[in-house]
Design a protein that fits this description.
One of its GO terms (molecular function) is ATP binding. The chain is an alpha/beta fold. Helices cover 32% and strands 21% of the residues. Helix 3 crosses helix 4, helix 3 runs parallel beside helix 10 and helix 4 crosses helix 8. The longest helix has 17 residues.
Length: 504
Amino acid sequence: MRPKLIDKTPAELRVEPNWPATAAARAAFSWAEEAKGLSGLPGGGLNLAYEAVDRHAAGPLREHCALRLLFRDGCRREVSYGELARQTSRFANVLGGLGVPPGARLFVLCNRGLELYLGVLGGLKAGCVVSPLFSAFGPEPLQTRLRLGEGSVLLTSESLYRRKVAPIRDQLPLLKHVLLFDDNGGTVQIAATHDLRQLMDRAADDFTVAPTSADSPSLLHFTSGTTGTPKGALHVHGAALTHLVTGKYALDLHPDDVFWCTADPGWVTGTSYGILAPLLLGVTSVVDCADFDAVRWYGILRSEKVSVWYTAPTAIRLLMKAGDELARAHKYPDLRFVASVGEPLNPEAVWWGQEERYRRCFAGDWYLSGDLARRDADGYYWFVGRSDDVIKSAGHLIGPFEVESALLEHPAVAEAAVIGKPDEILGETVKAFVSLKGDFTASAELHDGLLAHARRRLGAAVAPKELEILDSLPRTRSGKLMRRLLKARELGLPEGDTSTLENP
């Protein structure tokens, strides 16, 4: 059964959207006009961290809450823009005291918490190229990224260092400085490392931001590496404008919003929209330092009065799997906008050493992301899938999300993922994998009913020919369903790096 449609008119919205309602106003959009929303460095140039923190700290937002940290034990801490400016300046001074030059590669291996923000923003202030890492990575994927990215500085916790970095430290000859902090606020005494808190206590609050320009490198992100060697994507400080504009229009962030992005900071979404975009717009961000828990998440939406929530489709499905009763236990009157990110989009990037592939990814000045979409009769764009995920069967181009969406309409299905299997006659056939909601049990009858449901919804040419019911589907901790891993297992191919998986 299809879910009910929710229709909204502009008059019913509590807050007028930032994106203009009229075609004439939309046609007048100008990047040059939007760029006036950035200040630029006092001496000329552009720096992401200055735009995200320091310019607000020097104005009326100085005492406004930038970060609302929610700890695992139920405690909380609010950090103003003024305090964030002071703390990030201290971190930048720590780097300067160690002799770290602008352009050095700083890797940040942190769970969600204040240290993550100090590392990313303080590193950007110092002119470093900052690379946030997924904290669930094991030693091997960490070693690969630190080596490919020529990391010379690493910020991480003592526990993560002991478990994941110490075993590979001798394989990283370029890694000169390791800054450690204790998760419980204690001192750190490990050979060949620095105690971050001791250095921060001695550092000054004032720092002159490095004279970066719009074209200066700022962030280094890596692809997941599930199908081969991770590829580095180098961003520049000029991306501040894109983060500002997309936060303003795509996420519709307003000055009084309380924003919560659940994406892991080790991936591009978690950095671009979990850290930078809300700070660029001067709003308050909720930072949950714990892992996914349905009861906790519903509680955060209610108690923190979240107004804009940016999460992953998988997280939403997990909440659905927890049942309607839990969702209805609270009211969410402040929540006005929910946005989701599905398959992570490839960012504007340079692939090192792959010149031909790099050139194929551009059409003039436009970057071709490899994402496919369709436009409906109302002018809305619907994400179909990645070009390399589209299934070609008997002359039909089948988007996996189309099939998955149809399966998710069945009341028994909590999650669905679709792959293409080689077929001598058809080219490829569609196979679906599903997990069930808690009050349903796998059976032959349900299996056949799901296939019949898909045929009714999609037609025989597009519907899955095979279906398998699993206890859960493989996904990363950031919520990405790993269709490629399902395909590798189905076809007996190498699985590649699985350290990012939440449930391997």
